[in-house]
Structure formats: C-alpha cells, structure tokens
C-alpha cells in the first residue's frame, strides 16, 4: 500500500487481526474535521480457528488452515485495494506466536500475497488494545482494568487515575481452555497477580474487550441504560445458564454461531474470575478491540510523520 498520497485523497486505514479463533479485517476512514474521528467502512470476521490446531495438534498449524490463511489474505488484500486503503498493519497474536511453523507461514503469506504479518508479543498486544480508548481516560479518577480475552491469551492493562500502571499478558484464552492447554502454573500466576493488583489498587473497575464480552453484554438480561456496562451478578446468571447448555442448545436459544457458542463460556469464566478477585461490581463494554488499537497506531504514526 502506498503511504505518501494522504494529501490527495481521504485517509483510509486497515487492520488485520490474526487471532487464535478468528481473523478480522477492519477498515476505517478518517473524517474531515478538527478532531480525529473514524467511520467504520468494513468489518469482516472469518473463524479460521488457528488455535485449535496449535493448542491441540502438536503446536503446528495444519496444511489446510495454512492454505486457508493464504487464500484469506489474498481476499483481504483485494478488499483493501477496492476501498483504497492508504496504510495497513497485519498483526498475529497468541496462536501464531506459539505455532512451530508460524514463521514459515508468514514468509509464505508475504511471498504469495505481499502482505507483511507481524507477530506481536503479549505486552504489545495488551498496550494496543486500549490505545484507541486511552485519551478518554486521561485525568479520570479511579482504578480501571482493561481486560481483553482472546482465544489464546488474556491481556490486561491497569490504569490508576488515568496513568498506566502495568500491562500484562497470560497464556489463558478461550481456545486454550477448550483444549485443556492452560497450565496450572499460568492459572496460579494469573490469580496471584490479580490478588496483588486488587490489594494495591482497591475499587477496580473492569473494562472488557473482545467479541465474547460484546456478545455477553448483548445477551445479558439487564443493561445499565446510562452506560455501556453490565452488573457482574447479571453476567454470572447468564454464564451459569450457558455453561449448563450444550453448544447446540446455545446456538439455538441465543442464535449464536458455532465458533461463538463454544468459546463464550470460558470467556465468561475469565471475566467473572477477575471480577470476583478484584471485587468489581460492573463490567464496562465500550466495544473496543485489537483492530481498533492497530488503526489508532497507524493514525498516530501518520501524524508524527506529518509533524516531522
């Protein structure tokens, strides 16, 4: 993608998020005006479920899914051309980080499609998740924990009075849990860290990110009408009902897709575990994710180049 034509046309950014459960393409266009505002042009989500290979298949992505990923990247590249994308970034997270053949697949994608995929570590993933929301938190009093639950990992960012305290990543994700691939040691580290943070920063508010918490928010019976949040007791009630149903029953009763109906239960467990340890009463759901953070980073990079 050419990046030196911003003055001649509307600036359009694309983010490709290659996750453990799904691969997303988000395209946004920058509006004219004094403040940076984006219009969502396109959002596609394809459930390649790479993590099911990596976490249960000896640590490698299968040949079939490798071919599917190459085909999907070819399609995404054509869509970026159609939408006249000015700049893009493609990031791969937990499944590709752990895949024994991840680097080989990235080289193949680059050779056959021209798309450069970056494998980002958990710390960078955690920071990118809240990037597009952080400006709203500057000067905000109180303790806020951003929690992004993915298929292969969970990222948290703790902010105290608008300042970032820590960013951490755990190999605890919905696909890993379904494949019994989370170690006891990782669970202990996770719980111990949450207990330490809760003790040091009382009154933590949780801000949830990811497709599962967005869906849970839509399904929960009682919403807070003033804010995009749900009471943890309402989430617990929904979670108890979901976990006692089969995947087929969840699909039928809640109109869930197959690749959402299985992972939604372990996602709820992770959020509720954090809420129980921290004592959080509400989970705020502003509908943010890694793709949004990627685009925010592209915009910031563009602005820094313009100012130099």
UniProtKB/TrEMBL annotation:
Gene3D superfamilies: 3.30.420.40, Exopolyphosphatase. Domain 2. Keywords: Membrane, Transmembrane, Transmembrane helix. Signal peptide: none annotated. It holds the Pfam family Ppx-GppA. One of its GO terms (molecular function) is pyrophosphatase activity. Residues 38-300 form the Ppx/GppA phosphatase N-terminal domain. The chain crosses the membrane at residues 270-295. PANTHER family: EXOPOLYPHOSPHATASE, RETROGRADE REGULATION PROTEIN 2. This is Ppx/GppA family phosphatase. The lineage of its organism: Bacteria, Pseudomonadati, Bacteroidota, Bacteroidia, Bacteroidales.
């Amino acid at each position: 993608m050419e990046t030196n034509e911003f003055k001649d046309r509307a600036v359009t950014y694309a983010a490709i998020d290659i996750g453990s459960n799904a691969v997303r393409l988000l395209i946004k266009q920058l509006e004219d005006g004094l403040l940076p505002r984006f219009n969502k042009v396109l959002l596609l989500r394809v459930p390649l479920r790479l993590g099911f290979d990596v976490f249960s298949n000896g640590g490698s992505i299968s040949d079939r899914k490798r071919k599917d990923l190459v085909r999907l990247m070819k399609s995404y590249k054509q869509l970026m051309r159609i939408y006249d994308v000015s700049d893009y970034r493609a990031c791969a997270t937990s499944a590709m980080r752990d895949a024994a053949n991840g680097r080989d697949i990235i080289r193949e994608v680059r050779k056959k499609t021209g798309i450069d995929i970056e494998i980002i570590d958990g710390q960078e993933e955690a920071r990118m998740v809240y990037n597009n929301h952080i400006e709203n938190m500057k000067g905000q009093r109180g303790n806020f924990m951003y929690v992004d639950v993915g298929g292969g990992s969970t990222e948290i960012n703790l902010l105290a009075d608008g300042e970032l305290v820590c960013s951490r990543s755990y190999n605890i994700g919905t696909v890993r849990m379904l494949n019994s691939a989370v170690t006891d040691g990782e669970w202990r580290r996770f719980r111990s860290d949450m207990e330490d943070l809760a003790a040091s920063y009382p009154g933590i508010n949780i801000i949830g990110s990811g497709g599962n918490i967005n869906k849970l928010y839509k399904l929960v019976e009682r919403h807070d009408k003033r804010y995009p949040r749900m009471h943890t007791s309402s989430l617990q009630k929904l979670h108890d009902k979901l976990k006692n149903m089969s995947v087929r029953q969840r699909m039928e009763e809640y109109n869930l897709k197959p690749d959402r109906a299985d992972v939604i239960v372990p996602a709820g467990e992770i959020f509720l575990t954090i809420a129980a340890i921290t004592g959080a009463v509400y989970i705020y759901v502003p509908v943010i994710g890694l793709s949004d953070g990627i685009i925010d980073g592209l915009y910031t990079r563009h602005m820094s180049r313009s100012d130099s």
